[in-house]
Amino acid sequence: MTRSRKWMLIAVIALAAVTAMVLAVSKFALTVYRIPSVSMYPAIEQGDRILANDFSYGIPIPFFGGKLMASRVRRGDIVVFPRPDRPREDYIKRVIALGGEMVEMRGGRVWVDGQRLEEPYFYRDPWALELQAGRGGEPVRLPPVKVPAGHLFVLGDNRFNSVDSRHFGFIAEESVKSQGWLVYFSREPKKGILEGFRFHRLAKRLR
Predict the structure, then answer these.
(1) Dihedral sign of CA atoms 90, 96, 100, 105 in order
(2) Which position among 4, 6, 27, 39 bears the catalytic label?
(3) What is the CATH code for 30-205?
(4) Residue numbers of the chain with a pLDDT score lower than 70
(5) For residues 58-78, b (16+ Cβ closer than 10 Å) or e, as one string?
């Protein structure tokens, strides 16, 4: 075998190995979730199927624990985590406040450390607002509370129709499984077999 052919063979083997590694990582790095509720509307709609990136906050190290290239969860991230009081149920919500911050809600809006949070994703459900007004109450109020270190305060974007940190408390940052990434399929619930497909939502990035 000539020297040039030998190097070509090495290059082909290396390329095949890298390709196999990428495919393997892709297989384990992404998790599929079906969305059964409207709690994250409009970012995520009921009937969406999404992909979540399991490596967004680092690559788990088998047997030894810890993560490679670990990074912290950021405010505004859409994260998947087990509900603290029902650990077999995975929930997807948006991170609103981080450990050590003071969070408060008035009229459905959020204040963090005394500053109102800009929330372009916040959905004010008119039906829920009308219902709340009819009962004579202020919609979605939460007195000031400090998020413990190493924990997160999470809410649904459609917070008048969401079960979140207001109900089950703070979540441990280390319990976050993955970050919502992409809608790969979407179909309206309770439609016929060939009906209700939402093609305009395909490949929509979650923000």
Answers:
(1) negative
(2) 39
(3) 2.10.109.10
(4) 1-28, 129-140
(5) eeeeeeeeeeeeeeebeeebb
186 assigned to active site: no
pLDDT confidence of residue 124: 85
Does 56 participate in catalysis according to the annotation? no
Q: Of 6, 26, 93, 175, which is the active-site residue? A: 93
Token readout for 60 is 């788990």
Residue at token pair 């290239």: 69
pLDDT in tens, 153-196: 999 999 888 999 999 999 999 999 999 999 999 999 988 778 89
* pLDDT on residue 171: 98
- The CA distance from 169 to 152, in Å, is 9
3-state class (DSSP) for residue 178: strand
